[in-house]
Write a structure and sequence with these properties.
Elements lengths: L8 E7 L3 H12 L4 E4 L15 E2 L11 H17 L4 E11 L6 H14 L9 E4 L18 E12 L2 H14 L3 E3 L2 E8 L5 E7 L4 E12 L5 H8 L10 E9 L8 E5 L6 E7 L2 E5 L3 E2 L11 H14 L10 E9 L17 E4 L10 E5 L6 H16 L21 H16 L3 H11 L3 H6 L20 H9 L5 H8 L13 H12 L3 H19 L13
Parallel strand pairs: 1-2, 1-10, 2-7, 4-12, 10-18
Antiparallel strand pairs: 3-6, 4-6, 5-6, 8-9, 9-10, 11-14, 11-15, 11-16, 12-13, 13-14, 17-18
Helix pairs in contact: 1-4, 1-7, 8-9, 11-12, 13-14
Length: 555
Amino acid sequence: MEKNNNIEYFDLIIIGAGINGAGIALDAALRGIKVLLLDKRDFGGYTTSASTKLIHGGLRYLEYMEFPLVRESLRERERLLHNAPHLIKPLQLNVPLYKTNKRGPLVIKLGMILYDLLSYDKSLPNHNFHFLQKGGNGFEKGSILRKDDLKAVASYYDCIAQFPERLCLEIVLSAKQNGAVVKNYCEFLSMTKSSDDYNRVTYKDLMSDLSISVYGRVVVNATGPYVDNVNALINKEIKRRMGGTKGSHIIIEKFANGPKEALYIESHQDGRPFFIIPWRDYYLVGTTDIYFEDDFDRVTASEDEVKYLLRELNYYFPKREFVHNDIFYSYSGVRPLPYEPGKKERQITRKHIIVDHSKEKEKIDNYISIVGGKLTTYRSLSEEAVNLICTKLKKDINCRTRNYKLIGAAGIQSIEEYKKEYTAKSAKNYEVPLETADYLIDFYGSNFRDVLNLTISRSDLKDPISSENKDIKAQIIYAIEKEEAKTLEDILIRRTGIGTNKTLGLDCVDDVSKIAAAKLGWNETIRKQNLEKYIENVHFFYEIKGSEKKMETVK
């Protein structure tokens, strides 16, 4: 094909920059493939940011005999601990076992043994299990957790990504560092075959309102729940692939005599396991699992889901009596699971599927769809996808991501040792509180100095953004200059921890909008439009949908 010098050409175009699209971009870029990564929203702004934040092997998947998936997940969990130690932290989970549970102690014990066997190469401790005396004595001493009929407790380790949005962002930035072109707020419009070698892809830059065409030899649809929507834009004959389920969570304040460690506990309503996880200064409670076929752009936790989670809290902590007003906010997302009609939500496989459309009925060459995938296994999914892409590109290049440290992990072997060496020293050198330096290292890893360097010429950038958070004003500038932030939601929800604290950033969004306006060149009209949009979206997506009797206990 004769190339037009006015149009960009890529080996690979990826539609969708959630955790899987980002992972594919990084893997491909490290193999020397010319990559374009597009997303109609922000990087990691949909399914990735709506997860339960766990990096886990999938203990529950053993119940459905998905041993290869559990092994893959446990192996990838270990790799993430090494490749992003500032973002991924070990998490102890306790499993209280009651007389009324559907899964008895011996079943759970067997599951724990299998979990340890399948993670034979892990750095985390093995499980513990012990039966309890009558009344649950010896477990969570001082906790108000229900002790009636508590027979035994199992304890094991997985991991948590405190901010999965930043994990996705670091993967994107690592891909960019290695040559990938990354673009948020660019919506896919169409794909047509232009020659034997290239597909013509047209997308709309939502910031400039311009439609742009580029050429790519291979195109990947990694849009999560939107896979079928994008496929329909390309060929209406492509069969349905997605059967997503909605998962909702609530955030509540840590309460007196609450659980010290995370709980993985069986619902007394339907037997489905759910989590209560200490997260920052809160407890994260979730998740639900409900088929969802409505508007993917407007996913929120329903009143029934909120009541479901409140009932669980009130059952397991009967002395506390939780009400709607105890919830700071909720959030919800759609799992991009395969379409498996006739199965219950919990029975749908969590294994991913990589669809090569050249081998399907529609016979579309060099077009691939990603169905499913977990936060934990993004890297192995990406390796499998890029191996197929390399075959199509006739390139024989091995994967380089297995031990590749993300952009913020450079020079970090142990995050604890790194913080011992640099926290106090940096706090003194930059004249910031110890807790600020500590927080920034956890947030940015070895790139924390780049944030603090901004304060050398402007001491006001050391000031906290919100009284509810440790984030400082320098992070706003850094988000815009170095991290592709273009909106207030990008800054507050996905580049800092402000938009996910109990105020949802509403206590400081006006001030943040003024700093952002100066950096992004917004006039006063545009600033107010962005401000109003942020407030509107926060109220719609995070506000609790519940009974008007906000103080009435849900039982």
